[in-house]
Design a protein that fits this description.
This protein has 11 helices and 15 strands. With about 400 residues, it is α+β, with helices and mostly antiparallel strands. The protein is flat. The termini are close together.
């Protein structure tokens, strides 16, 4: 199992995507029309600094999140925030400040600052706009993400099932209904100095997909004939479509904000679902002095407790059924997640949840306790579990 802790930081900057040795046409193809912004154009960036390591059995922490904020925040404030990156940050004098390059530079600048702690920076995820993001990993791999939207109607069903089987499996979703879909295309490369895929090629690909699906009735689309019309099947089809022209790594398809399917290959399908719960807790180690607890946990050590509206996101994998076009029954998945978190709903975790009688209710310990609760209810098919304590603090557990 791999546990990671992520801290979210924001900064604003301007930049121009331009390579001086390229022609205007080459820059336009690589970066799109904004390459013409000679004096730069702006973005409000969001960066996730992602750490991995072993959890301290006494404190229940992998790393003190405040330390991430302080150390990484100084780099962000001094070298990226309110800068014209091409001129104010030496790293981008000769390198275009693409999402991928900014994520890599943030990693390069921040990773050495944590040489004195056991946890290590393993990735930086950078969101440039709602439609564009990138992730740089410690092994040098880099991912570029492109989101797009389309609206379509559908009848959830499989032509390989009988009418009775479709009605039983899909319930009310077997009737005609619609979704505002949001899809993410992820391209991956081991080393990338510029865009992993030229912007021109991505734009053409997304336009083609929108032309095919936007404001259509999916069951009548010729390209989907004889395919199950499920979220899993649609995600797999999108990946197949993109792979025909671009080196796609994976596709995520949201039919709503809290439910999605991911296709890595036609056989490698995942389903994700989100659910919120409210709970109170206190971060405190009984064997520590009041001064040490205050130093370690700050306001989180309030004797009266404090609370969060937690967000849990469970992702499951397993055998994709080609006949029905499903990985797992939606209602059963939803019930498994609900039944796992319901005992914690509107409770004080330290005082009313058995799981935290003897361990601190840190995000690390909560996500580990929640894993076993969900995994046992989904036939041990849980692949990843994320827990947002706040929009800035995220804890993730993955099956390895």
């Amino acid at each position: 199992m791999l546990l990671t802790v992520s801290k979210r930081l924001e900064f604003s900057a301007s930049r121009r995507l331009f390579v001086s040795r390229w022609t205007n046409e080459e820059n336009l193809a690589a970066f799109g029309p904004e390459t013409n912004a000679q004096h730069g154009t702006g973005r409000n960036y969001t960066a996730y600094f992602i750490f991995s390591g072993q959890v301290d059995p006494v404190t229940g922490m992998l790393i003190n999140i405040s330390e991430i904020k302080d150390r990484a925040g100084e780099v962000v404030d001094n070298q990226f925030d309110h800068k014209f990156l091409n001129e104010d940050n030496p790293a981008f004098r000769d390198l275009p400040p693409t999402s991928e390059n900014i994520a890599r530079q943030l990693f390069t600048d921040v990773a050495p600052l944590f040489a004195d702690v056991d946890a290590k920076l393993v990735a930086v995820h950078l969101i440039e706009t709602p439609d564009r993001s990138a992730t740089f990993y410690t092994d040098g791999a880099c991912e570029g993400n492109y989101w797009f939207e389309f609206s379509a109607a559908r009848q959830t069903m499989s032509p390989r099932l009988t009418a009775a089987e479709n009605a039983q499996l899909f319930g009310s979703a077997n009737a005609i209904h619609g979704h505002n879909y949001r899809a993410r295309l992820t391209f991956r490369k081991q080393k990338a100095d510029g865009p992993i895929v030229p912007q021109h090629d991505v734009d053409l690909c997304i336009k083609s997909l929108r032309d095919e699906f936007d404001h259509t009735y999916l069951n009548e689309q010729a390209s989907l004939k004889d395919r199950p019309i499920t979220t899993e099947s649609l995600a797999a089809y999108l990946r197949e479509r993109v792979a025909a022209s671009l080196p796609i790594h994976r596709v995520r398809l949201h039919e709503r904000d809290d439910f999605f399917a991911e296709a890595w290959t036609s056989e490698n399908i995942f389903l994700g679902m989100q659910m919120r719960f409210s709970a109170a807790h206190r971060l405190h180690v009984a064997s520590f002095s009041d001064e040490k607890n205050a130093e370690l946990f700050g306001k989180c050590d309030n004797p009266r407790g404090h609370g969060h509206l937690y967000l849990a996101e469970a992702t499951i994998g397993g055998n994709y059924d080609q006949r029905s076009g499903t990985l797992y029954d939606f209602a059963a998945f939803q019930k498994a997640l609900h039944d796992s978190i319901e005992p914690w709903q509107d409770r004080h975790l330290d005082l009313e949840a058995e799981e935290f009688r003897n361990i601190s209710s840190t995000g690390e310990n909560i996500v580990r306790a929640l894993w076993s609760k969900i995994d046992s209810r989904v036939n041990q098919q849980l692949a990843r579990l994320r827990l947002w304590e706040t929009r800035n603090n995220r804890f993730t557990l993955r099956r390895t």
